[in-house]
Write a structure and sequence with these properties.
Blueprint: H1 2-19, H2 21-40, H3 45-68, H4 84-120, H5 133-162
Length: 174
């Protein structure tokens, strides 16, 4: 079980550390769009759309990394004072009854939406836009898959804690 957790953590860690650089790209591209538009009166639809694509990718693919880092917003009035076993129970129940159903719902409800986009090889409606909306929409399916994997890793980690064999959760320095 520990090997599975390690591999899932590693996958989401690599993805998260890679896509976080896209936020810098978004800032630089946005700055370039503004300078080109207001200083040189030049505009490129594809450049403007790329900011939207990057933003979506960061949030959709970064969700599992955020879960791995335990960095989601949480109201922890009680949680912060719980023992490791208590936290393990709360996390295990949260994964089982909230995260897994949510991810399955997203997968089921968005499958046809994404499939249709792929069948049409959907592209931007704007002249000069990015001809890859079908790729962008694929992140709608990637997000719940990555979240499910990380949720299973979290559940396995909780089970190990409840069995008295907690995993080392030392995070590497950023």
């Amino acid at each position: 079980m520990q090997k599975i957790v390690h591999h899932i953590d590693r996958l989401n860690d690599v993805i998260g550390r890679s896509i976080r650089w896209l936020t810098l790209a978004m800032v630089l591209i946005t700055f370039t769009v503004v300078v080109l538009r207001y200083v040189f009166s030049i505009g490129w639809i594809a450049m403007q759309e790329s900011v939207i694509y990057l933003h979506a990718i960061v949030f959709m693919l970064g969700a599992a990394y955020t879960l791995k880092r335990n960095a989601h917003v949480r109201v922890d009035i009680f949680y912060e004072k719980m023992t490791p076993r208590g936290k393990a129970w709360v996390d295990l129940l949260g994964v089982t009854f909230l995260l897994i159903p949510f991810c399955l719902f997203i997968l089921i409800i968005s499958w046809n939406y994404v499939s249709l986009s792929w069948s049409l090889l959907e592209s931007s409606r704007e002249a000069g836009g990015i001809p890859a909306i079908f790729l962008l929409k694929s992140t709608i399916l990637l997000m719940p898959v990555l979240l499910l994997l990380q949720g299973f890793a979290q559940a396995f980690r909780c089970i190990l804690t409840l069995r008295g064999k907690p995993m080392n959760t030392n995070e590497p320095a950023d």
